[in-house]
Design brief:
The complex is a heterodimer of chains A (about 550) and B (about 350). With about 550 residues, chain A is mostly helical. Chain A is about 65% helix and about 0% strand. In chain A, helix 3 (about 70-105) packs across helix 8 (about 245-275). Helix content of chain B is about 35%, strand content about 20%. Chain B has helices spanning about 15-50, 65-95, 200-210, 215-225, 230-235, 265-275, 295-310, 330-340; strands spanning about 100-110, 110-115, 120-125, 125-130, 135-140, 145-150, 155-160, 165-170, 175-180, 195-200, 250-255, 260. In chain B, a hairpin with a 4-residue loop joins strand 2 (about 110-115) and strand 3 (about 120-125). In chain B, helix 1 (about 15-50) runs antiparallel to helix 2 and helix 4 (about 215-225) crosses helix 7. The two termini of chain B are about 50 Å apart. Classes of the chains: A mainly alpha (about 550), B alpha+beta (about 350). Chains A and B meet through helix 3, helix 5, helix 8, helix 9 and helix 10 of A and helix 1, helix 2, strand 7 and strand 9 of B.
C-alpha cells in the first residue's frame, strides 16, 4: 500500500456531470437511473397512500358512509395494485440496488446499462397504463384478481390494469437479470463472494426470484385477459376450466413476490446492523445462505394461501409443513442480527433506528406468520383482518422500514448532503408508533372475525378501526416529514463527506456524490466484509483528479 | 350477538371452537415468549453496548456453529409442534362425521340461499339444533364466496362448478355472525347473515312451523321427470339406456376408460352438466349436457333425489329427529321407489 495522501474531492460528480432533461432521460448511469426510479416510486407511493387514507377514513364508522361500496372496492384494489407492483417490488432493488450494487462490488456500472434504462421505461409504461385504468374507471377485483370474478363478473378496467402489471413485470425481470450478471462478472479484484456485503447476497437472491417468478404472473394476467375478452375457458368451470387454478398460478408468483419485497430489506438491515454497531455480521455465511434458502423455499409454499379454497387437505398439510420450514431461515437472520450487536459499538443514527424497528416489527410479522401456517388456526383467521395486519407487518414494518433506513443511510452518498438527523430520528419513531397503532389492533379484530375487504362492518369492531385510523393519520405525518426534509436537504443540507460514518464498504471509499464512473481507478479489495478500521485507513481509497475542467 | 362479547376472542359455540382456541393460545404463548425474548436481548445489547467513544472499534467476532445449529434446530422443533397440532385440528375441521345432517348452501351475489333436507328454505339465515352434527354441502351460482362463522371457527370457500363441505356441531344456543369472507364484488360486505343455534325441541317446532315447502328430494324428483331423465334412467332410477341411479350414491363406478370413481356429490354434478367427462362402462356418449338448463339449487335437489334412491336407512337424508306430523310427507314418497325396488 502506498502512502496515504488526503484526497481532493472533485467538484464533478454524477449529478452535475451533465445538464438538461435529455441527459437524464437518456442516461445510462446506474446512479441516475436509480434516481429516476426513486422519483417514480415515490410518486406511486403517495398515490397508494391516498388510497390507504380513504380506506381508513371509510372504516372509521361501521356504516358505509364516506364512499359507495363500488368506490370503496376500487380504492382498496388500487391501493394494493399500486403499492405492491409499483412501489414495494421495485422499491429497494430499483433504487438502492441500482445505485449500490455496482458501487459495493467496485464496478463502474451494471453489466447492461441500456437494459437498465429500458427497465425504467418499461416500468413507466406499465405505470402509465395502470394510471389510465384508474382514471378511466378503476378496477374492483382486489389486487389478487381472483377468477371468475375478474374474468366474468367484474365490470371494470381489468384488462387495462392487467396489461399495466404485465408490462411492469418485464422491468423486474430486466433488473434481476442485470444484477445477476453484474454480481457474477463485474466484481473488483479481490472482491470474492464471501467478501461481498450481505446487501449484495440478498439482491442476488431477490434477482433469482424476479427472474423465475415474474414470468408466471405475466402468463397468469395474460390468461385472465384472454378469458375476459375471448372466454377461452381456462378458469370458467362452465367451459371445463378451473377457477382455483388461477389461485395456484397467482400465488406461485405472488408469494415469492413477498420475498422480492423483504429480501432486499433484509440486505439493508444487515448493512445497517453491522455498520452502526461497527461489528462484522455474526454468522456471515448463515445470513448469506439463508437469503438463498428463503428464495428457493419461497417457491414451494404458495399453497398456504389456499387452505380453505377447496385444495386437497393433504396438499394443505405439505404446504403447511414447507411454510414452517421457510420460517427457519428468517429466524436465523433475526438471531444473527441480534448476536451481531453483542459487544458492538452501537450508535443511534436515524438508519439504525429504522433497522432496530425493522427487527422488532419483522419479529411480530414473522411470528404471526406462524399462526397462518398452522392449518387449524388459518381456517379461522384467513381472509380476516388478521391477514391484513400480518402482511402489513411484513410489507410496511419489514420492507418499508428497510427501504427508509437504507434511503437515509445512503442519502449522503446519493445526494452529497446530510439530512437533519433530529428530524430523521423523530420521524422514524413517529412511523414506528403510528404503524403499530394502525396494524396491531387489526390482529385482534381479525381473530374476532372481522373479514377483510368489508366496506361496512358490525359495530362491535368499531373500536379497533378507530384505533387503526388514528394510527394511520400518525403514519401519514411520519411519511411526509422525511419527504419534506430529504428534498430540503438536497439544497440546504450540510455537505456530506465521502465517508460520514467512517465505514469500510467500497461505496464509502469514493466521494459523495460519486463520479459518473464511481471510482477514479478500479479498487483492489484487500479487506473482508465489515472489517472496521481507523478513519485514516477507510477515509477513501480513490484518488480524485479533476480531469474535467471545473465549471465556472 | 346473544353471548356476552369478550374482547380478544369471539364467542366459542361449537365442538371445535375450543380446540381451535386452545391451539391459538398455545401459539400466542409461544410467540409472545420468543418475541419478548428477542426484544429483551436486543434492547439489552443496544443499551449495554451503545457507542461511548467515537473512534472505538470493537473486536470482530467469529461465528459459532454451535449457536447457529441451536437457533435453527430449536425453532424448527417448536414449529413442528405447531404444524402437528394444527394439522390434527385441521383434519377434524375437514372430516365430516358420517352421521351428520346435511344442509344445502348456495352462494350468490350477494346472499346465502340455504335449504334443509326437510324442505325448509332460508336466506342469509341458518337455523340449526344444538348438539347435532351438521354438514353443509355448498356451491355458488356465480363467483367464489366463503362461508365463515367466527363463533364456530369454520370457513370454507364455495367454488363454482364444484361442491365444498363444512361441518360443525353447535354447543350453545345463540345467534352468531355469518360472513362472506371471500371478496365477491359490489355488495361483498352485505353478504352477511346469522347462524341461529337452537335447543333441539325449539328447532323441531321451528321446522314444523315451515311446512309448505317440498323437500329437496321431492323437488329433485320433479325436475328429474321434467327434464326427461326418466326416459333413459327409468322412472325410479332403475336404469335403461342410461346407467341405473338406484343405490348409486357413494358406490364405486366403473368407467369405460378402465378407471373407477366414487359416485360422490362432485361426480353426480359433473355427470349432469358434463356427461361426456366420465362415461360409465358399457354406456355410449349419448347423454346431452344440462349445463345452463338447471340452476345450482336444482342440481342440489336432483342430488338429494339420487341420494334418496338409496333406501330408507341412509342417515344423511333422513329427518334429523322423529317425524313431525304433517311437516313433510315427501321424503317418504321420494324414498319409496328405491325401497320398493329393493
Amino acid at each position: 500500500m502506498e502512502e496515504f495522501t488526503p484526497p481532493v474531492p472533485s467538484k464533478i460528480n454524477y449529478i452535475n456531470a451533465q445538464y438538461g432533461l435529455k441527459s437524464w432521460l437518456l442516461t445510462k448511469d446506474h446512479k441516475r437511473i436509480a434516481l429516476l426510479y426513486l422519483g417514480s416510486i415515490t410518486f406511486f407511493f403517495f398515490i397508494g397512500g391516498i388510497y390507504a387514507m380513504l380506506i381508513r377514513l371509510e372504516l372509521l364508522t361501521p356504516q358505509g358512509d364516506l364512499l359507495q361500496s363500488t368506490t370503496y372496492n376500487k380504492v382498496f384494489t388500487q391501493h394494493g395494485i399500486i403499492m405492491v407492483f409499483f412501489f414495494l417490488i421495485p422499491s429497494i432493488p430499483a433504487t438502492l440496488g441500482n445505485f449500490l450494487v455496482p458501487m459495493m462490488i467496485g464496478a463502474k456500472d451494471l453489466a447492461f446499462p441500456r437494459i437498465n434504462l429500458l427497465s425504467w421505461y418499461i416500468y413507466m409504461l406499465g405505470g402509465l397504463i395502470t394510471i389510465y385504468a384508474l382514471l378511466a374507471g378503476g378496477v374492483d377485483t382486489g389486487w389478487t384478481f381472483y377468477t371468475p370474478f375478474s374474468t366474468t363478473f367484474s365490470n371494470s378496467y381489468v384488462v387495462a390494469a392487467g396489461l399495466g402489471i404485465f408490462i411492469n413485470g418485464f422491468s423486474s425481470i430486466l433488473t434481476g437479470l442485470n444484477f445477476i450478471v453484474t454480481i457474477h462478472t463485474m466484481r473488483a479484484p479481490g472482491m470474492t463472494w464471501f467478501r461481498l456485503p450481505l446487501f449484495i447476497w440478498s439482491h442476488y437472491a431477490t434477482s433469482l426470484v424476479m427472474i423465475l417468478g415474474t414470468p408466471v404472473i405475466a402468463i397468469t394476467v395474460l390468461l385472465v385477459a384472454f378469458e375476459r375478452v375471448a372466454h377461452i375457458g381456462i378458469f370458467d368451470p362452465a367451459v371445463g376450466g378451473d377457477p382455483v387454478l388461477f389461485q395456484h398460478l397467482f400465488w406461485f408468483y405472488s408469494h415469492p413476490a413477498v420475498y422480492i419485497m423483504i429480501l432486499p430489506s433484509m440486505g439493508v438491515v444487515s448493512e445497517l446492523i453491522a455498520n452502526f454497531s461497527r461489528k462484522n455480521i455474526f454468522g456471515y455465511s448463515f445470513v448469506a445462505f439463508s437469503s438463498l434458502a428463503i428464495a428457493v423455499f419461497g417457491f414451494l409454499v404458495w399453497g398456504h394461501h389456499l387452505f380453505v379454497s377447496g385444495q386437497s387437505i393433504y396438499a394443505g398439510m405439505i404446504f403447511s409443513f414447507l411454510s414452517f420450514a421457510v420460517a427457519v431461515p428468517s429466524a436465523i437472520k433475526v438471531f444473527n442480527w441480534t448476536a451481531t450487536l453483542y459487544k458492538g459499538s452501537i450508535s443511534f443514527d436515524t438508519p439504525m433506528l429504522y433497522a432496530l424497528g425493522f427487527i422488532g416489527l419483522f419479529t411480530i410479522g414473522g411470528m404471526t406468520g406462524l399462526f397462518l401456517a398452522t392449518l387449524g388456526v388459518d381456517v379461522h383467521v384467513t381472509d380476516t383482518y388478521f391477514i391484513v395486519a400480518h402482511f402489513h407487518y411484513i410489507m410496511v414494518g419489514g420492507a418499508i422500514f428497510g427501504y427508509l433506513g437504507g434511503l437515509h443511510y445512503w442519502w449522503p452518498k446519493i445526494s452529497g448532503r446530510m439530512y437533519p438527523d433530529g428530524w430523521g430520528r423523530f420521524s422514524a419513531l413517529l412511523i414506528f408508533a403510528g404503524f403499530n397503532l394502525t396494524f396491531f389492533p387489526q390482529f385482534v379484530a381479525g381473530y374476532l372475525g372481522m373479514p377483510r375487504r368489508y366496506h361496512a362492518y358490525p359495530p362491535e369492531f368499531q373500536v379497533f378501526n378507530v384505533l387503526s385510523t388514528a394510527g394511520a393519520s400518525i403514519l401519514a405525518v411520519g411519511y411526509l416529514i422525511p419527504a419534506i426534509y430529504l428534498v430540503w436537504s438536497m439544497r440546504y443540507g450540510k455537505v456530506a463527506p465521502g465517508n460520514p460514518w467512517n465505514l469500510p464498504g467500497l461505496e464509502w471509499r469514493t466521494q459523495s456524490p460519486p463520479p459518473t464512473e464511481n471510482f477514479d481507478y478500479t479498487p483492489v479489495v484487500t479487506w473482508e466484509a465489515y472489517e472496521f478500521a481507523p478513519p485514516e485507513e477507510t477515509e477513501v481509497v480513490g484518488r480524485f483528479r479533476d480531469e474535467v475542467p471545473e465549471k465556472v | 350477538m346473544q353471548t356476552p362479547w369478550i374482547p380478544f376472542i369471539p364467542p366459542s359455540a361449537s365442538t371445535l371452537s375450543d380446540k381451535v382456541d386452545a391451539l391459538y393460545f398455545y401459539l400466542v404463548g409461544v410467540t409472545i415468549f420468543f418475541t419478548l425474548l428477542i426484544w429483551g436481548v436486543l434492547g439489552f445489547f443496544v443499551i449495554k453496548y451503545r457507542r461511548r467513544n467515537r473512534y472505538e472499534i470493537p473486536r470482530p467476532v467469529a461465528g459459532s456453529l454451535k449457536l447457529e445449529t441451536m437457533w435453527s434446530v430449536i425453532p424448527f422443533i417448536i414449529a413442528m409442534t405447531m404444524f402437528a397440532w394444527g394439522a390434527q385440528v385441521f383434519f377434524q375441521l375437514w372430516r365430516p362425521p358420517a352421521n351428520a345432517v346435511e344442509v344445502y348452501v348456495v352462494g350468490k351475489q350477494w346472499m346465502w340461499k340455504i335449504q334443509h333436507t326437510t324442505g325448509q328454505r332460508e336466506i342469509n339465515e341458518l337455523h340449526v339444533p344444538v348438539g347435532r352434527k351438521i354438514k353443509l354441502i355448498m356451491t355458488t351460482e356465480d363467483v367464489i364466496h366463503a362461508f365463515f362463522v367466527p363463533a364456530f371457527r369454520i370457513k370454507a370457500d364455495v367454488v363454482p362448478g364444484r361442491y365444498t363441505t363444512l361441518w360443525f356441531e353447535a354447543t350453545k344456543p345463540g345467534r352468531y355472525h355469518l360472513f362472506c369472507a371471500e371478496y365477491c364484488g359490489m355488495n361483498h360486505s352485505g353478504m352477511i347473515g346469522s347462524v341461529v343455534a337452537m335447543e333441539p325441541t325449539e328447532f323441531d317446532s321451528w321446522l314444523s312451523g315451515n311446512t309448505s315447502q317440498q323437500s329437496p328430494a321431492v323437488a329433485g324428483q320433479q325436475i328429474y321427470v321434467t327434464l326427461g331423465c326418466v326416459s333413459c334412467h327409468g322412472a325410479s332410477g332403475e336404469g335403461g339406456r342410461g346407467p341405473a341411479l338406484e343405490g348409486l350414491f357413494g358406490k364405486q363406478v366403473f368407467l369405460n376408460n378402465g378407471q373407477t370413481v366414487v359416485a360422490d356429490e362432485g361426480y353426480v354434478r359433473e355427470s349432469i352438466v358434463n356427461p361426456q367427462a366420465k362415461l360409465v362402462n358399457g354406456f355410449g356418449p349419448i347423454m346431452p349436457t344440462f349445463q345452463g338448463q338447471v340452476s345450482e339449487e336444482q342440481l342440489l335437489q336432483i342430488l338429494a333425489f339420487i341420494k334418496s334412491l338409496q333406501g330408507e336407512t341412509q342417515p344423511t337424508t333422513a329427518r334429523p329427529s322423529g317425524p313431525v306430523p304433517g311437516s313433510s310427507p315427501a321424503p317418504a314418497a321420494a324414498a319409496s321407489p328405491g325401497a320398493v325396488n329393493r
